[in-house]
Amino acid sequence: METPPSAASERICRFAETLRYEAIPPDVVEKAKLLALDVIGIALAAHSTPVDAPLRAAARALTGRPKGEEGGDLGPASAVGEKRRMPAAGAALLNGALGHALDFDDTHTLSVIHTAAPVIPAALAGAEAFGKSGREMLRAAVAGFESEIRIGLAAPGRFHARGFHMTAIAGTFGAALAYGLMAGLDGRRLVSALGICGSMAAGLFEYLEDGSPVKALHPGWAAHAGIAAAALAEGGFGGPPTVIEGRFGLLRSHLEGEAFDAAAVASGLGERWETLATAFKPYPCGHVIHAFLDAALRVQRERGFAPEAIASILCHAAPGAIALVLEPAEAKRRPRTEYDAKFSLPYCLGSVLVRGRCGVGEFEGEAIHDPRVLEVASKVSYRREDGFDFPRFLSGRVEIRLKDGSTFAAEEKYQRGCPENPLSVEDLKFKFLDNACRSLSRPRAEALAEAILGLDSLASVEPVAGILRNA
Question: Does domain 287-412 have CATH number 3.30.1330.120?
């Protein structure tokens, strides 16, 4: 008689191994395709920005080929803008980092994880490396999504409060699972891959102190590390099955003294599909900012005031949001770098109230030093709001007082793009094309969208990968 799984990683792996594509609900499959569409479009947009060069240089250096040396393919996998195929881990590193570089990608808000950026690059690399179909890639991606999200659900928001970026940490496990399934890992080898991830998963929020762009790297490194863990396990290298809940496992090592629910890591697998709870982003900035921007725009459009008429803006914010985007106050009112601006609620409010928008271009070059925007940003303060259901919902309330003494307020309980306030499929296609056309012609971008949204009918992923190589 087969021994039932007991450790959390064993239960996750049993779920992943036995998951059949046909057993995944159609709405989950459609959500997985939209998540892939979204993150690939963002990667193509990031390819056109300055952050691309250092990330690309690092991914190329890791191939081992001397700088400038020409030649054929270096491996089996495709990366955005790389004519030659690369090793799977290097391609996933570049695709994952670019997919998160603009901070425009999805979030599972309760677990506080960017779902697709670590997993889709690993699943795509695995599908190419092992000649898998689009259906097999989607199956592996869904298994990765469901697993990484649940690691965050063991202690919602608690990892973040201690300075750990859960996308980097849990994403490593999700990537290893997705790639491991593509590689044919099962049983003890798949469990070992997750056990090895415990010694590879890392990501800190210290970038907030000086606006460094290191957060962009986190999902790419998670994808890279997850693939490395799967490769080690495939070769027979072992890892502990109690990596998540054990005496020195992830939960106890990272959350010592905090409450957590280890049972949540494997709860409801195959019955409750957390992929559906993932939220898309309408703005390329910290997700906790979005509700405030929509609330402020609504007030301005309804009341018709100019930014020069504003005397003060008071933001009612959850403690978790304050730590990310409102403190230290003076630094947030005058962001030091483009990435710093993405985590500045004052700057983003200034942008929407002065320019009427807060898109990719509003975080490029001299845009973050616009004196009109910074003047509005200087008028932003906050009040702690303990009544918001954070991080389940990334709510925001603004009170805008004008120089004539009039005051207007608005609140968004459900941030736009979440399941309770969703973006439509057409909205997401528009977002994809707007992003992808920064690196592709319109016809090629439309062909790529068609291929991604038709992954379940593709015998191989080459229709997707080929366009990415030629970005």
Answer: yes
